[in-house]
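To the wet lab folks,

You asked to see what we're planning to order before we commit. Fair enough. Below is the target structure as tokens, and below that is the sequence we designed to fit it. If anything looks off to you, flag it before the synthesis order goes out.
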């Protein structure tokens, strides 16, 4: 039987514990992190070393990304997620994409996650990959959520993605309808795509709550570390670049130290604003850079 254990005294989120090493997310108001597995020919230390530092900042949970191409990256995701729980005693969330997988592929990954006692999943459609023809079993993330529920009931805590400024492939009304479908399919929580202006997130929350999407919605924030990084993300994700951020780019062009300080200041202010507004939680896209995560978590720990 599950037992709810409130660990807020130690800084961890309230969790449901099965056995002595499994953490299942139930609620959080803190900061969580996203990491990605090492590239195909890179050493495991490229993520394990940053994880040591990230874990020491006491995040609510740590999520691990998954290859858009399907099952080729599942072992890396599962192994890193397992390491987070076993070595650091922090809840982990395994990303799982479905567009380029069939039901047998997904069943195999779910079985492995269950065997390794990883019961938190972020269910995603996944990006379209050039030269790869999508499979036909899962057209949408909501299909994956429904499949997980049909196969495992409530064994997994399942999350989904949401898009404060809309998905690049959808009109706003259709995007919100798709999100409602995810929630109705059994999503326990949602994590937002990155955004750089908090007002977009607050407006999105109002629209989501208005149609009875009542699960926790965590605000996804990507700290700015380079102009090229943000320009790439804006192009990929359709996020808007606020004028005040563009002005900072221009002001500190050619001044690396000044740029870094200004960007960290911008990210700290964004996260502090979200926490002060009472959002369900903040999910930092760390890009495996613990030094950036530390600056932000240290700056806001007094208001968590």
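Sequence we intend to order:
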């Amino acid at each position: 039987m599950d037992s709810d254990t409130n660990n807020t005294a130690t800084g961890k989120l309230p969790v449901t514990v099965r056995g002595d090493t499994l953490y299942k997310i139930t609620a959080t108001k803190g900061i969580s992190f996203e990491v990605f597995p090492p590239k195909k020919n890179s050493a495991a230390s490229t993520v394990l070393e940053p994880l040591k530092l990230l874990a020491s900042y006491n995040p609510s949970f740590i999520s691990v990304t998954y290859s858009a191409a399907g099952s080729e990256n599942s072992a890396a995701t599962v192994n890193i997620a397992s390491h987070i729980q076993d070595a650091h005693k922090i809840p982990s969330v395994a990303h799982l994409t479905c567009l380029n997988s069939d039901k047998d592929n997904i069943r195999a990954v779910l079985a492995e996650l269950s065997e390794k006692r990883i019961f938190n999943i972020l269910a995603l459609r996944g990006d379209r990959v050039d030269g790869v023809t999508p499979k036909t079993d899962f057209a949408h993330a909501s299909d994956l959520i429904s499949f997980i529920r049909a196969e495992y009931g409530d064994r997994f805590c399942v999350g989904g993605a949401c898009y404060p400024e809309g998905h690049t492939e959808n009109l706003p009304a259709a995007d919100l309808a798709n999100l409602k479908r995810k929630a109705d399919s059994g999503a326990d929580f949602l994590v937002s795509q990155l955004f750089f202006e908090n007002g977009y997130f607050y407006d999105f929350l109002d629209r989501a709550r208005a149609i009875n999407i009542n699960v926790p919605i965590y605000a996804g924030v990507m700290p700015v570390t380079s102009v090229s990084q943000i320009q790439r993300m804006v192009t990929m994700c359709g996020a808007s670049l606020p004028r005040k951020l563009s002005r900072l780019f221009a002001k500190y062009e050619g001044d690396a130290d000044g740029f870094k300080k200004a960007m960290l200041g911008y990210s700290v202010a964004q996260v502090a604003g979200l926490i002060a507004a009472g959002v369900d939680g903040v999910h930092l896209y760390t890009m495996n850079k613990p030094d950036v995560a530390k600056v932000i978590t240290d700056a806001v720990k007094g208001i968590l």
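Structural context that might help your review: The radius of gyration is 19 Å. The domain at 25-303 is CATH 3.20.20.220 (TIM Barrel).

Thanks,
Computational group
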